[in-house]
């Protein structure tokens, strides 16, 4: 058995002149939770679409479960589940009927079909709204139903494109729990997200994409130490003041978003002392916090609107 459940080699995708994905290499290990991160238009959805066989690469090779997706797409799709970025549901009918239709597509028959629907209604806590037309459900319920549908065939590989976008904090937290349970039961999860806290909590490994290429890859914690440092100090500081304020202080990396300066340091003490010596902690809105994946995202993909996409 191959080590990677998904393997991309030199994969590119063009839409006319636009290069959506450029010479991408990626391996998703069996049994892991792998996250693809990146700004709007980075190529995340395009990459997922090629992996589940909905789009052909312009060049390069994609293997899922060790075989070329294009050789037998139906066999590959029988073993994976996909939740698209936009829900694909039949609006006029209930969650139960949506699940039933999708189950039949996967060739499930009664009584197994009924049992599986029951399990999924419980697993995603949909039971209270099981018979309400989908169009009358809130966005959160529709999202949970979409995820339930993608689990119908007990997939070995679950692909989730922005599973929790637009969900309230309690629902997100509950879904994270479900993803963890699936992973613990042996399902490989490949997801995209714009929430760095989500990626940090769920993913064993992430790849950060920008303009169709992977710009950083690794375990979240390792990425933070490799690209930045353990602690982040944030202060208000005009560019012209920076040199004088930080004279003699060692900084591993720095990022600026307008007047807000973020300093990444192994030990925040010297910066904090300097700001306090000058009695400027309040004026500069000093904040000390652990560096996180969001910092790595900004450091590797840029802090300005319109740099990518
Ligand atoms: N069917 C298509 N036809 C033409 N261009 C496309 C098509 N699909 C995607 N693109 C372009 O490819 C690029 C990558 O798009 P993609 O949807 O993969 O980005 P993404 O990383 O998923 O972004 P988001 O975070 O906004 O979902 C974008 O520039 C997009 O406009
Ligand atoms: Mg997308």
Task: Report on this structure.
This protein has helices at 44-51, 73-78, 95-105, 112-123, 139-151, 169-184, 196-202, 220-227, 242-245, 269-277, 293-301, and strands at 4-15, 18-29, 33-37, 59-64, 67-68, 80-83, 157-161, 188-192, 205-210, 213-218, 231-236, 253-257, 260-265, 287-290. The protein contains eleven helices and 14 strands. The strands form three sheets. The chain has a six-stranded mixed beta sheet with strand order 6-7-8-3-9-10, sandwiched between helices. A four-stranded antiparallel beta sheet has the order 2-1-4-5, covered by helices on one side. A four-stranded antiparallel beta sheet has the order 12-13-11-14, with no helix packed on it. The mean pLDDT is 94. α8 (220-227) packs across α11. The chain has two domains: 4-219, Rossmann fold (3-Layer(aba) Sandwich), CATH 3.40.50; 229-290, Alpha-Beta Plaits, CATH 3.30.70. It is an alpha/beta fold and 309 residues long. Bound molecules: adenosine-5'-triphosphate (ATP) and magnesium ion. Magnesium ion binds next to α1.
Record keyword descriptors for this entry:
alpha/beta, Rossmann fold, binds adenosine-5'-triphosphate, globular, single chain, 33% helix, 309 residues, Alpha-Beta Plaits, binds magnesium ion, four-stranded antiparallel beta sheet, six-stranded mixed beta sheet, 11 helices
């Amino acid at each position: 058995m191959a080590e990677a459940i998904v393997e991309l080699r030199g994969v590119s995708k063009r839409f006319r002149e636009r290069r959506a994905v450029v010479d991408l290499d990626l391996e998703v290990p069996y049994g892991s939770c792998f996250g693809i991160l990146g700004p709007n238009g980075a190529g995340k959805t395009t990459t997922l679409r090629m992996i589940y066989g909905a789009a052909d690469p312009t060049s390069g090779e994609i293997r899922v479960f060790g075989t070329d997706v294009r050789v037998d797409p139906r066999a590959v799709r029988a073993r994976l589940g996909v939740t698209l970025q936009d829900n694909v549901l039949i609006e006029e009918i209930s969650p139960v009927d949506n699940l039933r239709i999708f189950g039949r597509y996967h060739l499930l028959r009664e009584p197994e079909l009924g049992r599986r629907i029951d399990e999924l209604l419980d697993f995603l806590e949909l039971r209270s709204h099981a018979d309400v037309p989908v169009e009358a459900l809130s966005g959160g319920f529709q999202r949970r139903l979409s995820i339930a549908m993608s689990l119908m065939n007990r997939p070995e590989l679950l692909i989730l494109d922005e599973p929790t976008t637009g969900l309230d904090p309690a629902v997100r937290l509950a879904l994270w729990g479900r993803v963890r349970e699936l992973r613990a039961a042996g399902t490989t999860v490949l997801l995209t997200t714009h929430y760095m806290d989500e990626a940090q909590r769920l993913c064993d490994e992430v790849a950060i994409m920008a303009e169709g290429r992977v710009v950083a890859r690794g375990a979240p914690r390792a990425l933070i130490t490799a690209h930045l440092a353990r602690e982040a100090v944030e202060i208000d500081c005009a560019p012209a003041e920076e040199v004088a304020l930080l004279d003699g202080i060692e900084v591993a990396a720095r990022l600026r978003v307008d007047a807000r300066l973020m300093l990444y340091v192994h030990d925040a003490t010297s910066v904090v002392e300097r700001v306090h010596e000058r009695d400027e902690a309040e004026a500069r809105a000093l904040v000390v916090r652990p560096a996180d994946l969001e910092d790595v995202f900004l450091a590797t993909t840029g802090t300005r609107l319109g740099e990518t996409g």
